[in-house]
Amino acid sequence: MEFWWQTHPLRIDHPNMKLEEAEKLNVKQFITECKDLHAEAIVFSTKAIYAFYNTWIIVHQRRPLNGTRVLLAEVIKEGESKQIKVIARVEFSNAERRFIDNCVEWFHLNQGEKPIPSPDDPSNRFYETNLMGGYQNQDYAIPVLDELINNYNLHGIHLNAGGWRSSRFDKSMVLEYHFPENKIGCSCSNPDEFC
Question: Between β-strands 41-47 and 85-91, what pairing exists: parallel, antiparallel or unpaired?
Fold first, then answer.
C-alpha cells in the first residue's frame, strides 16, 4: 500500500508567516496562490510560540486572531476545496521563561545548571528546551500532537527544529538516560565536562 506522499514527487509550499501576516491572512487568496504555484500540499505554521487553532492545553498560548477565528481550520477547509493537503508545522525547541521555576527539567541547562536563552530571541522571553525533557515529550509536545491529529484533518506533521542543538546534553539528561560515557555527539572540548 502506498501513501499519498509516496506516489510521485510532490510540490509542497512551505511559507513561514510572521504573526502580523497571520492576523491579516486572506485564506482564500493564500490557497489560490498556492494552487497557482501547483502546490499539492502546504506546510502551515500551526504551533510554535502561539497556537493558530483552538487548543485546550492549559500552558499553550492561543494567538487571538479576530476574536474566535481558527486559522488552521480555515486553511484546511479552503485547501480541501482546491485539493491541497495541509501539513501542520510545529516546533517545541523553545519554551517561555515563565515555566523555568516550576518545570526546569524542560530546559537545556548550561554547565552552571542554568537554562540557556534562545539565541534567536533578543527579549530573553524564550529558552532552549532539551530533547529528552517533558516539554518536547509527554508534558507538552505529545498532548499538542494528539490534539492536532484528533481534531483536524491534517495530512502530516512537520516537526520544525526537531532535536535542535540536541548534541548538547546537560548533566541531568546524561545521568537519567544513561548516555554512553564517551558522550558521542557531544560538542564539549573537554570530555569530562557536560555540554
Answer: parallel
Query: How confident is the model over 44-86, as pLDDT tens digits?
Result: 988 867 778 877 787 766 665 556 778 899 999 999 999 999 9
Which helix or strand (DSSP H or E) is residue 30 part of? helix 27-36
pLDDT of 186 higher than 70: no
Place of cell 494552487: 35
- Alpha-carbon distance 190 to 169, whole Å? 13
| Measured distance CA(64)–CA(8) in Å, rounded | 38
Domain 4-92+140-164: give its CATH architecture: 3-Layer(aba) Sandwich (3.40)
| Integer Cα distance of 46 and 76 in angstroms | 11
Q: What is the DSSP string of 52-105?
A: SS----TTPPBP--TTT--HHHHHHHHHHHTT-EEEEEEE-SEEEGGGTTT-GG
Which conformational region is residue 185 in: left (phi greater than 0), alpha (psi within -120 to 50 degrees), or beta?
left
| Residues 6 or more apart whose Cβ sits within 8 Å of residue 164 | 93, 128
> CATH 3.40.50 in the chain, residues?
4-92+140-164
Residue 98 one-letter amino acid:
R
Q: How many other C-beta atoms lie within 10 A of the C-beta of residue 107?
A: 22
Q: What is the pTM of this model?
A: 0.78
